[in-house]
Write a structure and sequence with these properties.
Pfam families: 4HBT_2, Ank, Ank_2. The chain is α+β, with helices and mostly antiparallel strands. Helix 1 runs parallel beside helix 4 (67-74) and helix 14 runs antiparallel to helix 15. The longest helix has 35 residues, at 756-790. It is globular. The two termini are 50 Å apart.
């Protein structure tokens, strides 16, 4: 079970920045896991002897590899024994961390048959003292898995260990062989071949009552014929219908509005993974005399797809890395079509035929001949390349769209498709012809030139009045993914060379004058680009800086402010400040309304407008006082935290108001509440005399600011008094007012400070605001305390 590679060495470069405790734990755990996968027992014993039991026993997390899981999945029996002895020797540590594990399921899930035998033998031995966890061949975990279900799943789902080996082909063959042997072992031990993962309770979705998985449904992916025959003979139902969740890279997922599909039979799954042995056995059982069950080859899933659609698609992703001869694509498709060829041109609920899926799926396998194998076979059995899918795209369009990371498509394949009647100038629903698509795909210049030579119309225009010249000018040149999954570097020089090449081919076909006139028409796009920029001016680079800094300048930031400010009414301190703006298209998300992330740039502008209006004009007096106290450094205000709640969406280009006001402050923080507002519409709203009720709330935010003079925290009351507001007394942390409200009279231009009643009103509003923002303050402290507690760090100061 040893995997190739070398263990991660200890950190030794003293020039690197110091690591956090969490980084040290993760690095040591990664090294331990690597040693386990290599089955280096001497180094494993040395590692364990050099560290505390906690380094081995601490359970895994999304950010920390789990020791026992890796030992059971990828280690040897002896490595697992050594790890378990650490658990036996440190019961106090085990009790403290209380790790939850199920070694038998983990080993079955990775087809680690040697470890499975070790666990079963130890469990059967009366002398065993190792903590093996639950060892019950019929017990289910929280996901519904049993050991035999997990073993069958090891054939369908290859884990990340495949990425860590040098000889991938050998690893795959060994994994499949181990999986087959393991399922035989579990059957010998009495595990039922009829095991299933039952449906979720109270699943009200269509098909929610069907099983999630079954032993046979998982095993038909890559099990050999003797094992499949044994499962069927042991009672496994070949007609059982399953739910199935497609992987994100599966072509089916690209053409489905939902992840789950129902009414999936074992023949669908066997075809999906190109297992001709399983397909043949299932078809043979179908053909038995007196069989009154539904016909498997004509069974459709909930998306209307036949097993042939599934075979044409394939699982994508990992299978792309297998050699063509190992996949047995042709053999699987032939078995299905030899049994019944009437489904070769049937469409599913998206309007797609098996030929469409073959073009999508196998073209995505950029370094193989999968596409040619599948498409040739389907055409041989009568697949019609003229049939468009639900978007009006033919197989030629799909080859162009899904080959942006591929090797150049062989022109022989395109020639075969055309020879079977494909329309070279068929336009999809948006008016694009195959030449539009291939001209834009700079990795397929040779294919585009071939289409031009075969008479593709270079003058064809799509619904936007664009020709293939426009498409080539917008050329796409994506990374090239090789069989080892490493991207080939994309250079600007290569892109320019390929773009010039396709342009020359189009010019030669159209003639120099036509090409020049079409190039001149591209000035339309320049005007369009300028218009687009103007409509999205708010989101352009540096515009945010202009929007923010304008309020510094408007409030005299570059001027020398008066040392003394005229007294202002105390209640003016709490008056709101509004800005008005719109949501341009660049701020619109996939749901066609203003993206939540863009609210914060508007918050920056609104809060800056408020703070500048309150603080800047008194900054000179405040600077003078602080310098007398020996405080050095620039005077500035800093955002300390934000909480935002979204109430209603903001559609594109709707005008809205961002209104900010001070809710409260204490000896350190200024708390600002911001409302996103828009006027209500309708007769009732316009007749309302209350200005507040005439507005609709879109979002609300609470922010806190701190004033700094270098490293010194400036009390907000000092800044407000310097700006001309009456001497203010900030509420204490417990919400009460520190000291008495002493009235201080200062006269300038014949006007006195506010009377005591106005002060009291202001203090009342400040205390009210303090109560409002206190939950925000408390929650922030709880989050920080929780983080520090989890990290076992000192309390946050």
């Amino acid at each position: 079970m040893a995997e190739s590679g070398s263990p991660i060495s200890d950190r030794s470069d003293s020039s690197d920045p110091p690591e956090s405790p969490h980084q040290i734990i993760a690095r040591r755990r990664n090294r331990l896991v690597n040693i386990i996968k290599q089955n280096d027992l001497a180094q494993l014993r040395q590692f364990i002897a050099s560290c505390s039991p906690e380094a081995v026993i601490v359970p895994g997390s999304p950010y920390l590899e789990d020791t026992l899981f890796n030992a059971a999945s990828y280690g040897s029996p002896e490595a697992l024994r050594i790890i378990l002895e650490v658990y036996t020797a440190a019961p106090d540590v085990v009790e403290r961390f209380n790790p939850k594990f199920c070694l038998l399921l983990d080993a079955c899930g990775a087809a680690n048959i040697e470890v499975v035998r070790f666990i079963l033998d130890c469990h059967d031995s009366p002398e065993n003292q190792l903590p093996l966890g639950p060892v019950d061949l019929h017990q289910r975990d929280d996901s519904g898995d049993t050991p035999i279900i997990a073993a069958a799943a090891s054939l369908m789902n290859f884990d990340k260990a495949a990425d860590e080996v040098e000889d991938e082909t050998e690893w795959i063959q060994d994994r499949i062989a181990r999986g087959n042997q393991l399922i035989h072992l579990l059957l010998d031990r009495g595990c039922p071949a009829t095991d299933v993962i039952p449906p979720l309770p109270n699943d009200l979705r269509p098909g929610g009552s069907q099983v999630q998985d079954s032993v046979l449904g998982l095993a038909v992916s890559r099990a050999n014929a003797p094992l499949i025959q044994r499962l069927i003979d042991s009672g496994a139902d070949i007609y059982l219908k399953h739910q199935h969740l497609h992987h994100g890279m599966v072509p089916f997922q690209l053409r489905s509005t939902k992840g789950h599909v129902y009414d999936v039979t074992t023949l669908h799954l066997a075809s999906f993974f190109y297992n001709p042995d399983a397909v043949k056995l299932l078809l043979d059982h179908q053909d038995c005399k007196n069989n009154t069950n539904p016909d498997l080859p004509s069974s459709r899933d909930s998306d209307g797809r036949l097993p042939l659609h599934w075979a044409a698609s394939g699982p994508g992703a990992f299978n792309c890395r297998l050699l063509d001869k190992q996949l047995r694509i042709t053999e699987t498709i032939r078995l299905l079509l030899d049994h019944d060829s009437t489904g070769v041109n049937l469409v599913d609920n998206t309007g797609s035929t098996p030929l469409h899926y073959a073009a999508i799926s196998h073209t995505m396998c950029s370094y193989s001949q999968h596409a040619e194998l599948a498409i040739r076979t389907l055409l041989e059995y009568g697949a019609d390349p003229r049939i468009p899918d639900g978007s009006g795209r033919t197989v030629l369009h799909l080859l162009g769209y899904h080959s942006t990371q591929c090797e150049p498509i062989e022109t022989t394949l395109l020639d075969i498709i055309l020879s079977h009647g494909a329309n070279i100038n068929h336009a999809e629903n948006n008016g694009k012809t195959p030449l539009h698509v291939f001209a834009q795909n700079l990795r397929q210049v040779s294919a585009a030139k071939f289409l031009i030579e075969r008479g593709a119309d270079f003058r064809a225009r799509n619904t936007l009045r664009e020709t293939p010249f426009h498409a080539a000018a917008r050329g796409i040149f994506n990374d090239h993914v090789r069989r080892d999954l490493r991207d080939e570097e994309v250079t600007t020089a290569t892109k320019i060379r390929l773009q010039d090449e396709i342009m020359r081919a189009l010019q030669e076909a159209a003639g120099e004058d036509t090409a020049v006139s079409l190039w001149q028409s591209l000035t339309f796009w320049k005007a369009l680009a300028i218009g687009f920029a103007l409509l999205n001016l708010k989101t352009l680079p540096l515009v945010w800086h202009i929007r923010v800094y304008r309020y510094f300048f408007q409030n005299g930031y570059l001027l020398t402010p008066a040392v003394k400010q005229s007294p202002k009414p105390s209640t003016d301190l709490l008056k709101p400040k509004s800005i008005f703006t719109r949501a341009p298209i660049m701020e619109i998300d996939m749901n066609m309304h203003k993206s939540n992330s863009t609210y914060f740039s508007d918050l920056d502008v609104s809060r800056t407008a408020l703070m500048c209006s309150l603080v800047i004009k008194g900054s000179a007096l405040l600077e003078k006082r602080l310098q007398k106290q020996g405080k050095r450094g620039p005077l500035h205000f800093v955002l300390g935290g934000v909480y935002t709640s979204f109430k209603r969406e903001i559609p594109a280009y709707m005008k809205y108001e961002v209104q900010s006001h001070i809710a409260s402050y204490d000896s350190k923080w200024i708390y600002i509440v911001t409302y996103f507002l828009t006027p209500r519409t309708g007769k009732k709203a316009s007749a309302d005399s209350d200005e507040v009720r005439r507005k609709r709330l879109l979002a609300v935010s609470i922010s806190k600011y701190v004033l700094k003079k270098g490293r010194y925290t400036v009390p907000p009351s000092d800044a407000f008094e310097a700006a001309g507001y009456a001497p203010l007394i900030a509420p204490a942390a417990n919400g009460t007012v520190n000291g008495s409200l002493t009235q201080r009279k200062e006269v300038k231009s014949g006007r006195a400070w506010d009377d005591n009643s106005e002060w009291q009103q202001l203090q009342k509003e400040i205390l009210k605001g303090k109560e409002m923002v206190q939950p925000f303050v408390d929650q922030e402290e709880k989050l920080l305390d929780d983080y520090m507690e989890k990290m076992k760090l000192p309390a946050f100061a």
